[in-house]
Write a structure and sequence with these properties.
Blueprint: H1 2-27, E1 30-36, E2 39-41, E3 44-45, E4 51-52, E5 56-60, E6 65-70, E7 75-79, E8 84-87, E9 96-107, E10 121-123, E11 127-141, E12 146-160, E13 167-171, E14 174-178, E15 190-191, H2 194-203
């Protein structure tokens, strides 16, 4: 009788761990919320409402875009045309990597209660953009190795990958970059005219 009780307790423990693991996995899922044209994930065309539960690369073609929703971070991520975005493994502290093109991060209130050790954000080859409840766009050009940011609302931590001490807090209406014409160090961010912010806002919606 005692052996059966021990067996049952062991089975309950395994089941509990399994359910806990599934809960964490659910937090890391992305859902395809909007889709236009041809966008692939690891080379396979995406479908509306499709769930993405593993690491891989989103690739949008000409005149195409995709918007994916994350409950882990309570956000919507918009990938523009002719862009490439990598969804990183859950072990990576930064969930997304912009390989090329343009992406927009919009924080929403729709968030899972599951705890996560990761911090919301996007990185490029030379920079990391940490989310602080905000709305911003990043453009990365492979040719010159330029990372550009426009902040529509809130705040973003902009950090140099090669020198983590070189970091700036970007606020609403600011624009700046790193690499290429921007140089190898993050300097003071520029306040951009309202019409420029509105242009980027319309472009990445």
């Amino acid at each position: 009788m005692q052996i059966n009780i021990q067996k049952s307790l062991k089975n309950l423990t395994v089941l509990s761990l399994l359910l806990s693991s599934m809960s964490v996995m659910a937090a890391n899922d992305f859902i395809v919320a909007r889709l236009k044209g041809k966008v692939t994930f690891n080379g396979v065309p995406l479908k509306l409402n499709q769930k993405i539960s593993k690491g891989g690369t989103l690739q949008s073609s000409d005149k195409s875009f995709v918007s994916i929703k994350s409950l882990e971070f309570g956000s919507n991520i918009f990938l523009s045309a002719n862009s490439s975005l990598k969804i990183n493994d859950v072990k990576d502290k930064v969930p997304l990597s912009l390989v090329e093109g343009a992406v927009r991060w919009v924080t929403t209130k729709d968030k899972t209660k599951t705890k996560t050790k990761r911090v919301g954000g996007i990185k490029t080859k030379n920079a990391v953009f940490g989310v602080r409840g905000t709305n911003f766009a990043i453009i990365y050009g492979k040719l010159l190795g330029e990372s550009e940011i426009v902040c529509f609302d809130g705040k973003v931590n902009f950090t140099n990958q090669k020198n983590r001490k070189n970091t700036k807090l970007i606020t609403k209406g600011q624009w700046g970059g790193l690499g290429g014409r921007f140089g190898s160090v993050i300097t003071t961010m520029d306040k951009v005219p309202k019409n420029v912010v509105e242009h980027f806002d319309k472009l990445l919606k």
